[in-house]
Design a protein that fits this description.
The complex is a heterodimer. Chain A is built from seven helices and four strands, in the order ααααβααβββα. Chain A is of the alpha+beta class. Chain A folds into two domains: about 60 residues, Arc Repressor Mutant, subunit A, CATH 1.10.10; about 80 residues, Glutaredoxin (3-Layer(aba) Sandwich). Chain A has a four-stranded mixed beta sheet with strand order 2-1-3-4, covered by helices on one side. The two termini of chain A are about 35 Å apart. Chain B has three domains: about 210 residues, Rossmann fold, CATH 3.40.50; about 80 residues, Roll (Ubiquitin-like (UB roll)), CATH 3.10.20.600; about 80 residues, de novo design (two linked rop proteins), CATH 1.20.1440.230. In chain B, strand 5 and strand 6 form a beta hairpin. The chains are: A alpha+beta, B alpha/beta.
Chain lengths: ~160, ~425
C-alpha cells in the first residue's frame, strides 16, 4: 500500500501544484515534503508521488537518485553534514570531522545505534566566510570549533 | 576604497522587511519605470549600462534580454539563478538575506522590460532559511501591490515563485536549471536552441544570476551613465568580491570592477593570519584556474583575468597559505568535480572520476611515475568535449594547478 499524505501536506501539495503550468515541475518541492513526512523517499512513496503527478514511478526514481538532498534510506533524527570543500578545509574542517566521528562513535555515512545522528560530508554550503561550517538538518552552524561542536551536540535532544 | 552601492543598505536594521525598505527609497525604480518608461526604454538603459552577468560567464545582460522575441504568442519566463554552488561563493546568499526586496525590484524591472509575467527564483535547497525569507518578501510585495495583478496601477502583472533545488551543483548551469525546474534530472541541454528562444517549458526564457538582477534597480534609478562610471567602460558597475580561506577578515567586499587582487587580499581582507605566507589564490570560484603568489598583481575584471589564463567567474577569492599542500587542494577539487559531474557526457563523467582516483592514490602514498602526465592528459581530453561548461570548469583548474605546482606534486611521487 502506498503511504497516505497527512491532510496538511495534501493542502500544501495543492498550493504547490497551483504554482506550475505543468504538474511534473512540482516534483522537487513535493519530494521535499514527502521526505519530511515519511523520513525517506521509499519505493512506495515514489509510487504515491508518481500517481499524484500522473507520471511513471521510474521518472520519480530518476529524480530521487540524482539529487543529494533526497534520501531513499531513513537518516538519523539529526543529519550532520560537514562541508569538506576548500575554504572550510583550509580552516580545519577535517580535524572537526574527526572530532565528530570520535564523539558520535561513527564514520561518515553511518548512523548512531539510537538513530539520533547520521554523519556525512557535503560540498560547499556557500558560507565560506564563516568557515568551517556544517549543516544539521536544514540549520547552518558556522565558525565551528571543538568547543562549539560540544555545545551544539549538547543542545540537540 | 570600498564602493558600497549594491550593498549600501546591508547595515540597515530590518531592511529585509518591506516597510523599512520603503522608508529607504525602496521600489522607487519600479514606480518610475512603470509610470514613465516603456519596456524598451528599460531594456535600452540596461544595455547602455554594460551590465555583465555576475554568475560566472559574464555575458552582457541587456543583449541577453534582447535575444528574447518581443512579439510572440504565449508565456515567456524569467528564471533567477540562485543555485549558488561554486565553491568559495556566498555573495548571493548575502543579497537575498539582506535585501530580498531589491532582488524582487530587479525581477519586476527585468520582467517588465522583456514582457514576462511569470518568474521563478531557483534557489539551492540548502538555503532553506533564505528561501523562507524570500517567500515572506514576496507576500509583503503582493500586499503592497508590487507583485500580482496590475502592479502600481500600471496594468502590468507578475507572479514570482521560489523553487527549491535539492543538492546538485550542475543545476547552476542554466539549461540544467531549466531541466531541474521542469521536474527532471539536472542534465544540461544541447545549445542551440538557446533558452532565449526555447527555454523553460519550451518557451522563451531569460536566466539571470541574483547579483545581476539586484543591480537593475540601481541602473533604472540612477541611470546607465552613472552605472558605467562605477566600473569599466565595457563592464559597468561594482562587483561583490567574496574572500575566504587564509585571511584575517573573510567576507564580502563591494569594489569597482578592476580592483587590484593584491589590495583585496592585503588591505580589505587584512592579509594572511600571523605566521602564514601566501602560496596561491583562486580568483573566481573553484573553476577559475589558480594564480601563484607572484601573479596576484592583477586587476579583477573579466578581461584582465582572461589575459592571465584565469577567470573572474563568480568573483569568489579563495586564499591558500604556505602550510597547505597543493596535493590537498587538488584532491578537494577533483573530489568535487567527480561528485558533481552529472554523468551525461562520457569525457566529464569518466575523466573527473579517473583523475580523482589517481589523486587519491597519490595522497595514500601510492603514486606512480607518470601520474601527473596522466592527469594532464585526462584533463585535456575533457576540455571542449562536453555539452556544458562543467567539463571545462573541471579541466582548466586541474591543468593549471598541476602545471604551476608540478614540482611540489612530483615530490609525492617515487623518484
Amino acid at each position: 500500500m502506498s503511504p497516505e499524505f497527512s491532510p496538511q501536506t495534501k493542502k500544501k501539495i495543492e498550493e504547490i501544484l497551483a504554482h506550475y503550468p505543468k504538474k511534473e515541475a512540482a516534483i522537487l518541492p513535493i519530494l521535499h515534503l514527502t521526505q519530511q513526512e515519511f523520513g525517506a523517499i521509499t519505493v512506495e512513496a515514489e509510487k504515491r508521488v508518481a500517481q499524484l503527478l500522473g507520471i511513471k514511478p521510474i521518472r520519480v526514481r530518476e529524480v530521487v537518485t540524482f539529487y543529494t538532498m533526497l534520501k531513499r534510506q531513513p537518516q538519523g533524527r539529526y543529519l550532520v553534514q560537514v562541508c569538506s570543500n576548500l575554504s572550510c578545509s583550509l580552516l580545519g574542517s577535517e580535524r572537526l570531522l574527526n572530532t565528530l566521528k570520535r564523539k558520535l562513535g561513527i564514520n561518515v555515512g553511518e548512523t548512531t545505534p539510537d538513530k539520533k545522528f547520521t554523519l556525512a560530508t557535503v560540498e560547499c554550503l556557500g558560507a565560506c566566510d564563516q568557515a568551517p561550517c556544517m549543516m544539521i538538518n536544514l540549520d547552518y552552524h558556522t565558525g565551528l570549533s571543538e568547543d562549539k561542536i560540544d555545545e551544539i551536540l549538547g543542545s540537540l535532544k | 576604497m570600498e564602493e558600497r552601492v549594491l550593498t549600501a543598505q546591508f547595515g540597515l536594521e530590518n531592511i529585509f522587511r518591506i516597510d523599512v525598505y520603503l522608508q529607504h527609497g525602496g521600489y522607487l525604480s519600479v514606480r518610475k519605470a512603470l509610470a514613465e518608461m516603456k519596456p524598451e526604454d528599460v531594456m535600452a538603459e540596461v544595455k547602455k549600462a554594460n551590465l555583465r552577468g555576475r554568475g560566472g560567464a559574464g555575458f552582457p545582460t541587456g543583449i541577453k534580454w534582447g535575444f528574447v522575441p518581443q512579439k510572440v504568442e504565449g508565456p515567456k519566463y524569467l528564471c533567477v539563478n540562485a543555485d549558488e554552488g561554486e565553491p568559495g561563493t556566498f555573495k548571493d546568499r548575502y543579497i537575498m538575506s539582506h535585501i530580498p526586496h531589491q532582488l524582487l525590484e530587479g525581477i519586476i524591472l527585468a520582467s517588465y522590460a522583456v514582457g514576462i509575467h511569470s518568474a521563478f527564483i531557483y534557489i539551492r535547497g540548502e538555503y532553506e532559511a533564505v528561501a523562507q525569507r524570500l517567500e515572506r518578501a514576496i507576500e509583503e510585495a503582493i500586499e503592497k501591490g508590487f507583485l500580482g495583478k496590475n502592479i502600481c496601477q500600471s496594468g502590468f502583472d507578475l507572479d514570482v515563485v521560489v523553487h527549491r533545488g535539492a543538492g546538485a551543483y550542475i543545476c547552476g548551469e542554466e539549461t540544467a536549471l531549466l531541466e531541474s525546474l521542469e521536474g527532471k534530472r539536472g542534465h544540461p541541454r544541447l545549445k542551440p536552441p538557446f533558452p532565449a528562444s526555447v527555454g523553460l517549458f519550451q518557451r522563451p526564457t531569460v536566466i539571470n544570476n541574483v547579483e545581476t538582477i539586484a543591480n537593475i534597480p540601481l541602473i533604472i534609478s540612477k541611470g546607465a551613465d552613472w552605472f558605467v562610471q562605477k566600473g569599466l567602460p565595457r563592464d559597468g558597475g561594482t562587483r561583490i568580491f567574496g574572500v575566504s580561506g587564509a585571511v584575517k577578515n573573510p567576507g564580502i567586499y563591494e569594489l569597482p570592477l578592476g580592483a587590484s587582487l593584491k589590495d583585496i587580499i592585503y588591505c580589505h581582507a587584512g592579509g594572511l593570519p600571523e605566521g602564514k605566507k601566501l602560496k596561491a589564490v583562486i580568483p573566481g570560484g573553484m573553476s577559475a584556474p589558480v594564480l601563484t603568489a607572484e601573479e596576484i598583481d592583477i586587476k579583477m575584471d573579466f578581461d584582465s583575468l582572461a589575459a592571465a589564463n584565469s577567470m573572474l567567474g563568480s568573483a569568489a577569492i579563495i586564499v591558500i597559505d604556505d602550510r597547505t599542500s597543493m596535493l590537498h587542494v587538488l584532491k578537494t577539487m577533483t573530489k568535487f568535480y567527480s561528485h558533481e559531474s552529472c554523468g551525461q557526457c562520457t569525457p566529464c563523467r569518466i575523466g573527473t572520476s579517473w583523475i580523482d582516483k589517481i589523486v587519491k592514490r597519490i595522497g595514500e602514498g601510492k603514486g606512480e611515475k607518470g601520474d601527473l602526465e596522466t592527469i594532464l592528459r585526462l584533463a585535456s581530453n575533457i576540455k571542449g568535449k562536453t555539452l556544458c561548461p562543467l567539463g571545462d570548469a573541471a579541466s582548466l583548474p586541474i591543468i593549471s594547478l598541476t602545471r604551476k605546482f608540478y614540482k611540489e606534486l612530483e615530490s609525492y611521487l617515487p623518484n
